[in-house]
Amino acid sequence: MFDIEIQRCTRRCAATGQELSAGEEFYSVLVPDGKEIQRQDYSITAWGEPPDNAIACWKSRMPDPAENRLNWAPNDVIRHYFEELGKNGDPQHQDTRYVLTLLMIRRRIVRLEEVDRQHKDRQKLVVYCPKNETEYQVPVMEPTPERIVEIQDELAKLLFSETA
Description:
Radius of gyration: 16 Å
Number of domains: 2
Number of strands: 8
Structural class: alpha+beta
Distance between the termini: 39 Å
Strand content: 25-35%
């Protein structure tokens, strides 16, 4: 078993070194670097395609400190929603479950044990939840750019609340 530390946004473009401004959209990518996982953030203008060895990539917006902050739902709620997505087996929600798994890894609700690459066309993340001592296998399902927006909206409605 191993635990992966994923760094927070550097607030700088990895390609140009320029600071990312509040409200600016940017891309982030996770790439292996030896035994480490490195996060790289790119401005919209510097972004091309994710590297071939990318584990994950996503589009975000740099938060504005003056805006309301979003608070996560409790970890148990997030985990319960993740389990429900796995129960229904709906192929339309596999990409949502994959994205939610990445969020849960970042929140340390689960930890990444390994990336199962036995089948070239169907990789799986193997994650472990210490709270309920359960291991999950989650198919890697990269969402389309259009679907990414839908997933972000869905998760924001379900798992976040605003505070001033």
